[in-house]
Each structure stands twice: as structure tokens, then as C-alpha cells.
TrEMBL record:
<dbReference type="InterPro" id="IPR036890">
    <property type="entry name" value="HATPase_C_sf"/>
</dbReference>
<keyword id="KW-0597">Phosphoprotein</keyword>
<dbReference type="Pfam" id="PF02518">
    <property type="entry name" value="HATPase_c"/>
</dbReference>
<keyword id="KW-0902">Two-component regulatory system</keyword>
<keyword id="KW-0802">TPR repeat</keyword>
<keyword id="KW-0808">Transferase</keyword>
<protein>
    <recommendedName>
        <fullName>histidine kinase</fullName>
        <ecNumber>2.7.13.3</ecNumber>
    </recommendedName>
</protein>
<dbReference type="InterPro" id="IPR011990">
    <property type="entry name" value="TPR-like_helical_dom_sf"/>
</dbReference>
<dbReference type="InterPro" id="IPR019734">
    <property type="entry name" value="TPR_rpt"/>
</dbReference>
<keyword id="KW-0418">Kinase</keyword>
<dbReference type="GO" id="GO:0005524">
    <property type="term" value="F:ATP binding"/>
</dbReference>
<keyword id="KW-0067">ATP-binding</keyword>
<dbReference type="InterPro" id="IPR005467">
    <property type="entry name" value="His_kinase_dom"/>
</dbReference>
<feature type="transmembrane region" description="Helical">
    <location>
        <begin position="414"/>
        <end position="436"/>
    </location>
</feature>
<dbReference type="InterPro" id="IPR050351">
    <property type="entry name" value="BphY/WalK/GraS-like"/>
</dbReference>
<dbReference type="InterPro" id="IPR003594">
    <property type="entry name" value="HATPase_dom"/>
</dbReference>
<dbReference type="GO" id="GO:0007234">
    <property type="term" value="P:osmosensory signaling via phosphorelay pathway"/>
</dbReference>
Length: 695
């Protein structure tokens, strides 16, 4: 399982690079110089980069450099911006295509020298930040992780200095790519989303369109890695719609549109493969391969598609088709090497041969995989974030290696085993009879155990019914006791009012009378709370709209909040309905908001939030900015009677039954309630209730 998951993550990252590869050229060609002045010099550089990239796409690096150098040298005057763009092409395109990261880093260093002479020029800063991202990528390839992270950090810190929102959007895109490669999918998602918003300010040209289409793809991939499949499907569909719009807006870019659709097919194929829909996954992979075959160009994208087809056919037990694509990939890797893809190819070939019982060949292939994995582990030994994942992959591969080794040994010793087994036929018969009897005995014990379990289950169900009856009787008893206590306490309360009079009286006696009156008032409030609970329990359940109920609760307590100069903010999603007893549920929510007011310091904010959790539940969150709840009190906060009573921030007293009643009400509504808190910072009570359709 660990190997499969690790392989899926590696494939997803490769697919991500495949998606990004289509837009990287557009970034370097069109986006690297935004915002730009539409002067002749800029347009000429654009044409040079575009022409040279056409050769690079065909794998003709020498022709690409010759074309660019000849066109560049034909001009007599070169501005610093022209030189920066030349270094950016050489470092970010040419040496990257030749897989010479050392020369790429050295070339990109020249951009820093030009930028340092005029840091105020916005276009210089834009190109300098882009060069930092590229240097980080190349240093990462070289294993210079400390330098790579320093490059990424410097770029990230410079982004806020960029005034133009369009340029900021481009840099957020690159930052998202860095996060994604490190497995920080949550951060990658946020960067891609921010980039999509910022690039809405770019000019309405093809380069901006292509970048925004890639951002939708990358958002889908990020959500897929976060296992948020609904969002992943949403952004995939949005990307498809975006492509359809682009086909109408930019008919001359038909090649890009088709290539982007091929990437979407590979992306959808990956998602379907992960979910076990191999046939549907194969259809999308074949569509992508058909387009790449039509181009008749060997590149990394087409190699990844071959790998996908070989793996899918292997999983579908179509050995001939799997061998065809894996062999074709092997031949292509001799022309265009990809070390990571070579390791995955060897692993797939090993699995395929093992499935065909060719254990010796599988063992040889897997040995090469282990050697490559070991080399990779050594090269990544300084990268802490990769250690654990690589260790899981290594252990899983070692287990597979051991299994193949045992199978090979088993095959070698088969003849010896046949000779030995003939000598132990009699012993085998005896052992068979012995184990048969033991199995019968064990079966009897299992049956006896099941009978005992059935009896205990019956006892537990009987006890549960008794407890439910007892609980109802206790509720009735509490209601009767509360009703009996209510009347005499009211009389004591009335008499106490007459006793506490402003006439001259012994001060000590006056204090005692006031204390008696206050204590009796508290007791009356507690008893009335119990009586109201018993009465409200008889209220029928009905479908209610939760946002309106919450608004009513807040309106009832606005005066109490104003006394402490508190602001109550409501964030409520409308049209969420639940089956509830309105009075009881209002009592629970009122109690929680009252507690928030009680324990909030003056001039703070209380937030009441209502939103949908998953598909079937609504979640109500009441958060204050008060004194918080100590950790030792969290477990007993809902006890009845509680031992966690505390005075409010202005001395307000607690009666100890409110939260226990809240818990009972929520549980009666088939919901749940819990609390999160940090001492001195906040306390947040959360209610989860099942949703129903509107009445």
C-alpha cells in the first residue's frame, strides 16, 4: 500500500510538471517581461524567444541557440533589459533543455548583477524575481538544497515589492509550483488561487489566457492531492470550459489548445486510475497519446503518456499491450533520458515479469530499481522533508525484493522438495488428521464463544432498556421536584423583598437579608430553568430555518452585549433547515452566547457562524475573544452539576447547569457539541446538527 501511494504521489508530481511545462514557455516568452512597453526592442526579443523555443520543442538545442544568438547579435544596441532577457532565455530555456543546471545557475546569476545597478526599475525587479525561482529549481536538481531554499525565500520576500498585480500573479504562480514540488499542497493551492485572482488584471492576450488556464489545472491537481475530489472535479471542468472559450477567442493557437486538452486527458486519466476506473482512465490516456503521436515530436510529456499506458495495461492484465508501451518508452529514454521515469519503468517491468512468473528477470529489474532508489536516497539525504517518504518506498521495495528472492529460491529447490515430500507422505497424512481434529475442536470453541457473546449482548440490551426507563423516571422526578420547590421559593422571594427595606436596621442583619435575597433569586432561576426544560421537552419537532433562529437568539441578547460594548457578528449561510424543537434549541444557543458575553472582555468581538459541513450536517460556531478555558476544565465543562463554575469578566456568576442542559438538548436533536479553547485568547463552542429538507 505504501509503495502504491508513493508511486501515485510521484506520478502526480510528474503530471503537475507536465501541466506546468506547457505554460513555462509562455511565462518566459510572454509573461517574463510584463508589464512591458510595446516598443520595437521588446517586440524583437519576443520574436527571438518564440523562434528559438520552436527549435527547443523539437529537441534541437544547438539550432535554438544559434538562431537566438544570430538574431540578438544582428542588433547594434542592447539595453540592460535586453541582456537580462537573453540571460533568462539561456538559463531558463536553453540550458534547462540541455539538462545542464550548473551552467543555467551561472547564467542566471548575471541577471542579479544587472538588477543591482538599477533596483528601482519595475521590469528589472520582475525579471530578477523570475530568475530567483529558476535558480532555486536548478539548485534543487543539483542537490544544493540550502541554496535552492535561499533562492525561493529571496523571491518570496521580493514579491510584495512588485506593484503591478499582473506581475505579482505570475510570481505567485511560480511560488505555487515550488510549494507543490515540496508536497505542501495546501500552500500550493492558496498560491495558485491568489495568482488566478491577480492575473485577472493582466492584458487580455493569449499569454495571460494560457497562464490562467494552467492555474485552473494546477488548482485541480492540488485539490486532488488534498483528497478534495469535489473541488478537483470542479476546477477540471472549469479548465475544460476555459479551453473551449480559448478555442473561439484564439483560433490561431489551435496547437496549444489541443496540447492543453491532452494534458487534461492525462490529468483525468490519473484521477480515474487512482479511483480504480482503469478502463475510463485508459480512454483518456489514449486520447492524449493520439494527439502526441500526431505531433510526431518526442518530449517528456509523450514519455510520461507511454508510462501511463504501460502501467494501465499491466494493471488490466494485458501483458502484450503493456510490453509494447514499456518497450517503446525504454527506446525513447535512450534518446531523451529521464532518470526518475527510468526507475519507474524498471519497477513496472519488474512487476509485469513477476506477474508472468518470470521471477529471475523480475529480480534483475528490481535490483536496478533498488540501486537507483539507493542513489536517490543518498542525493536527498540533506532534504529532511523527503526522508520519510523515501524510507517508506525503500522498505516497500525491499519487501518486494525479498518476495521475489524467496520465489526464485522456491523454484530452484522444487525438485529437491518433490523428493523430500515423498518421504513424508505418511507423516503428512497423520498431520492432516491431527489438524482436522484440532480444527473441529476449535470450531466447537468458536460456537461456544459466539453463544456467550449473544448472551452478553442480550444482557447489555436489557440493561440499556432499564437505563433508559430509569433516565425517564429521573427526568420526571427532577421536573416534579423543581415544580414543588418553585412555589415556596417564590414566596420566600416575595417576603425577602419586604424585609430588605431602607429603614434603619442593624447593618449586619441588613447584609444577611440581602445575601438571603440574592441566594434565593439564584435558586429560583435554576428551578425555573429546570421547569422550562421539562415543559419544552413536550414541544413537537419541526423543520426550522437555522439562520433565522440564530438571528432571533442574537437579537434577544444584544442588550447584554451592549452593556459590555461587545460586537456580535453573524456569518450565517441561509436556507439550512433542521428538525428541531425551536424553544429548546434557542435555549441552548442563547446559553452559549450568554456565556460568550459573560467571559468576554469589554470592547471585544463575538462571532456566530453557521455553515454546511459535508452534505448532511450544519455546524454552528460561537467564538469569543475572552479569557478562554483552562485545559484541566475542558473535560468537565459539560458535567451536571459542574465543578467548573467561574465568574464572568465583570463578576457575573454561574449556576453550573447551563452547559449540561445545552449538551442534553443537542443530544436530543441527534447532534453533538464540543469546545475548543486557548487560555487568554478565545473559547469556541461548536454544535453539529443533522440537516433536513426545507418544510
Amino acid at each position: 500500500m505504501e509503495w502504491t501511494k508513493a508511486r501515485q504521489i510521484v506520478f502526480s508530481k510528474r503530471l503537475f510538471r507536465c501541466c506546468c511545462g506547457i505554460a513555462i514557455g509562455l511565462l518566459l516568452f510572454g509573461c517574463e517581461h510584463k508589464p512591458k512597453q510595446n516598443d520595437q526592442s521588446e517586440l524583437l526579443i519576443d520574436a527571438m524567444v518564440s523562434g528559438a523555443r520552436q527549435y527547443l520543442d523539437k529537441g534541437e538545442e544547438s539550432k535554438a541557440k544559434a538562431y537566438f544568438d544570430s538574431a540578438f547579435s544582428s542588433r547594434t544596441m542592447h539595453s540592460p533589459l535586453d541582456s537580462m532577457r537573453r540571460f533568462l532565455f539561456l538559463g531558463g530555456n536553453y540550458y534547462e533543455s540541455r539538462q545542464e543546471p550548473e551552467l543555467a545557475v551561472a547564467t542566471l546569476d548575471s541577471i542579479h548583477d544587472i538588477w543591482s545597478h538599477d533596483k528601482a526599475e519595475p521590469r528589472y525587479l520582475h525579471l530578477y524575481i523570475l530568475s530567483l525561482f529558476l535558480k532555486g529549481d536548478f539548485n534543487f536538481q543539483l542537490g544544493n538544497y540550502k541554496a535552492a531554499f535561499k533562492n525561493y525565500y529571496d523571491a518570496r520576500m521580493r514579491i510584495p515589492e512588485v506593484v503591478d498585480p499582473c506581475s505579482q500573479g505570475h510570481h505567485q504562480y511560480r511560488l505555487g509550483m515550488v510549494y507543490y514540488r515540496q508536497g505542501l499542497f495546501q500552500d500550493a493551492k492558496e498560491s495558485f488561487r491568489k495568482s488566478f485572482q491577480l492575473t485577472a488584471n493582466c492584458t487580455n492576450d493569449f499569454e495571460s489566457y494560457a497562464l490562467r488556464q494552467e492555474l485552473l489545472n494546477n488548482l485541480a491537481l492540488s485539490f486532488d492531492q488534498l483528497n478534495d475530489m469535489d473541488s478537483a472535479i470542479y476546477y477540471t471542468q472549469k479548465s475544460e470550459t476555459f479551453l473551449q472559450d480559448g478555442a473561439q477567442r484564439f483560433p490561431s493557437k489551435d496547437t496549444y489548445i489541443k496540447e492543453a486538452k491532452a494534458v487534461l486527458d492525462i490529468q483525468e486519466s490519473s484521477r480515474l486510475e487512482k479511483n480504480g476506473h482503469l478502463k475510463e482512465s485508459l480512454k483518456h490516456a489514449l486520447k492524449a497519446q493520439a494527439w502526441q503521436e500526431q505531433k510526431q515530436v518526442l518530449n517528456k510529456d509523450s514519455q510520461k503518456t507511454m508510462m501511463t499506458l504501460g502501467r494501465l495495461y499491466r494493471k488490466m492484465h494485458l501483458a502484450d499491450s503493456a510490453n509494447h508501451w514499456l518497450n517503446q518508452l525504454d527506446r525513447s529514454l535512450a534518446v531523451l533520458p529521464q532518470p526518475e521515469l527510468k526507475s519507474e519503468l524498471l519497477s513496472e517491468v519488474s512487476r509485469l515479469k513477476a506477474a508472468n512468473h518470470q521471477y529471475e528477470q523480475a529480480y534483475q529489474e528490481l535490483t536496478q530499481v533498488l540501486e537507483r532508489t539507493s542513489q536517490k536516497r543518498n542525493s536527498l539525504s540533506n532534504l529532511q522533508s523527503f526522508r520519510l517518504k523515501d524510507e517508506f518506498v525503500r522498505l516497500d521495495q525491499e519487501g518486494l525484493h525479498q518476495q521475489l528472492f524467496v520465489n526464485n529460491q522456491y523454484r530452484t529447490s522444487w525438485l529437491v522438495f518433490i523428493l523430500i515430500i515423498t518421504l513424508f507422505v505418511v507423516l503428512g497424512v497423520i498431520l492432516t488428521v491431527y489438524y482436522y481434529r484440532m480444527a473441529q475442536k476449535g470450531l466447537i470453541q468458536v460456537n461456544s464463544f459466539h453463544q456467550e457473546l449473544d448472551f452478553r449482548n442480550w444482557l447489555l440490551s436489557t440493561s440499556l432498556a432499564d437505563l433508559q426507563v430509569t433516565n425517564r423516571q429521573m427526568d420526571e422526578l427532577i421536573g416534579r421536584v423543581a415544580s414543588e420547590l418553585h412555589t415556596p421559593m417564590l414566596k420566600i422571594q416575595e417576603y425577602g423583598k419586604y424585609l430588605v427595606i431602607p429603614e434603619p436596621i442593624d447593618p449586619e442583619h441588613q447584609d444577611m437579608l440581602v445575601l438571603m435575597q440574592q441566594s434565593n433569586d439564584k435558586a429560583v432561576m435554576m428551578v425555573e430553568g429546570l421547569i422550562n426544560i421539562e415543559k419544552d421537552d413536550e414541544e413537537p419537532f419541526q423543520s426550522i430555518e437555522l439562520s433565522a433562529l440564530i438571528q432571533n437568539c442574537v437579537d434577544e441578547l444584544k442588550f447584554s452585549a451592549q452593556l459590555k460594548q461587545l460586537e456580535i457578528v453573524i456569518h450565517a449561510v441561509p436556507s439550512l433547515f433542521a428538525m428541531a424543537q425551536p424553544l429548546l434549541l434557542s435555549r441552548a444557543i442563547n446559553n452559549l452566547i450568554s456565556n460568550a458575553i459573560k467571559f468576554s472582555k469589554p470592547r471585544k468581538r463575538i462571532q456566530v457562524t453557521l455553515h454546511q459541513k459535508k452534505a448532511d450536517y450544519a455546524q454552528i460556531e460561537i467564538r469569543d475573544e475572552g479569557i478562554g478555558i483552562p485545559p484541566e476544565m475542558i473535560d468537565s465543562i459539560f458535567d451536571q452539576p459542574g465543578n467548573s463554575n467561574r465568574a464572568g469578566t465583570l463578576g457575573e456568576e454561574s449556576y453550573g447547569l447551563g452547559l449540561s442542559i445545552c449538551k442534553k438538548i443537542i443530544q436530543d436533536h441527534q447532534g453533538s457539541i464540543w469546545v475548543e479553547s486557548e487560555v487568554g485568547a478565545f473559547a469556541q463552542f461548536i454544535i453539529s446538527l443533522p440537516l433536513t429538507k426545507s418544510s
